[in-house]
TrEMBL record:
Coiled coil: none annotated. This is HlyD family secretion protein. Signal peptide: none annotated. It comes from the Bacteria. Its main location: membrane.
């Protein structure tokens, strides 16, 4: 009886074992086929554009207009710095600009006066030249008269007194010509002096004009620094934690906090280097977000980083130091959503964990 019982049980056990082996083989084959056509990783996070808020000048915080996690629009005031120093600098620049403009007006007035003096001197030279020509005619006439009277006085045709009068007229004409020539030379020298003064005044006008441009730049720079005392949002988005307090001193160029922009979301998945053999841009991606366990999303491979993540770290590994341990590197891959609903996109936050599955075949 016992042998008969064993013979009856043996076929059932064999069938069950066969079924288990077949099911296991089918499951294993499917997993093997799936793994050959898919690459997945849970080392992935939601990413978004982040705009840093930076102070362009140093100064003390006078007012903080935003709170943690607040939504702000482009142009909204975030922080106000004390502006007394910037106001004083602006007033000094404006006063210097006024002085430069006054200097230009003075130089222009001097140039106008010099031009008038040049015209007067030129007129005086022209008058002197005309008088010299008339005096030369008079000298020629008196010279001719003197020659005739010399002959007459030798013949005793005229008296000595008459001859002396003609001689005196000749000497007076020579003297008058000499005086006019000297006056003409003085007028010409005065014209040269006034011309030199005019050139110098013209150069002063150029210097004054350049100084005005420089002072205008100083005023614009002072206004720009004054505007930097009001820190505004460059884009719409949510501000991060605000570590800034009233009275705190801010250094120029220091990042105060960030604004997470609300205009775009994507995924950065860090795949092992051994998973990238078949991965190319444009491949379909299945996405599961931990925050939405009941939903599945679709995406595509947008781009693959040209270097591993460790290459861009603060302290990249130096394998030439002698202490080398081989570590599988990870390469960031950008994945963009496909037909992501706006209401879901608004709920997504940068840094959320994601599971991605890339169909590589």
């Amino acid at each position: 009886m016992e042998n008969q019982t064993k013979n009856k049980k043996s076929p059932v056990f064999g069938i069950i074992l066969t079924i288990v082996i077949v099911v296991g083989a089918i499951y294993g084959y499917k997993k093997w086929s799936y793994s050959n056509a898919h690459e997945e990783t849970d080392d992935a996070q939601i990413a978004s554009n982040v705009s840093p808020v930076i102070s362009k000048i140093s100064g003390y915080v006078a007012e903080v207009r935003v709170k943690d996690n607040q939504f702000v629009k482009k142009g909204d005031t975030l922080i106000i710095l004390e502006n007394k120093d910037q106001l004083m600098t602006l007033q000094q620049a404006e006063a210097a600009l006024g002085t430069a403009k006054s200097n230009l007006n003075t130089a222009q007035a001097g140039a106008a006066a010099a031009n008038k003096s040049i015209s007067t001197s030129n007129a005086a030279v022209a008058t002197a030249n005309a008088q010299i020509e008339a005096a030369k005619v008079n000298v020629w006439k008196t010279t001719q008269d003197l020659k005739r009277y010399e002959n007459l006085v030798k013949d005793h045709s005229i008296t000595q007194q008459q001859y002396d009068q003609v001689l005196a007229a000749k000497q007076a004409a020579d003297k008058q010509l000499q005086i006019l020539v000297e006056q003409r030379n003085q007028a010409a020298q005065q014209t040269g002096y006034v011309s030199s003064q005019s050139e110098a005044t013209s150069q002063q006008i150029g210097v004054a004009s350049s100084m005005i441009k420089q002072r205008e730049v100083d005023v614009q720079n002072a206004k720009l620094n004054l505007s930097y005392t009001v820190i505004t949002a460059k884009q719409d988005g949510y501000v991060s934690k605000i570590p800034v307090q009233v009275g705190q001193f801010l250094q120029a160029g220091a990042q105060l906090f960030s604004i997470v922009l609300n205009n775009d979301k994507w995924i950065v998945a860090n795949f092992k280097e051994t998973q990238l053999n078949k991965m190319v841009e444009g491949q379909k991606v299945e996405i599961k977000i931990d925050a939405f366990p009941d939903d599945e999303f679709e995406g595509v491979v947008s781009s693959i980083s040209p270097a591993t993540g460790s290459t861009f770290s603060l302290l990249p590994p130096d394998n030439a130091s002698g202490n080398f341990v081989k570590v599988v590197q990870r390469v960031p891959v950008k994945i963009t959503f496909k037909d992501l609903k706006p209401e879901v996109a608004k709920k997504l936050r940068a840094g959320m964990n994601v599971l991605v599955d890339v169909e590589v075949k």
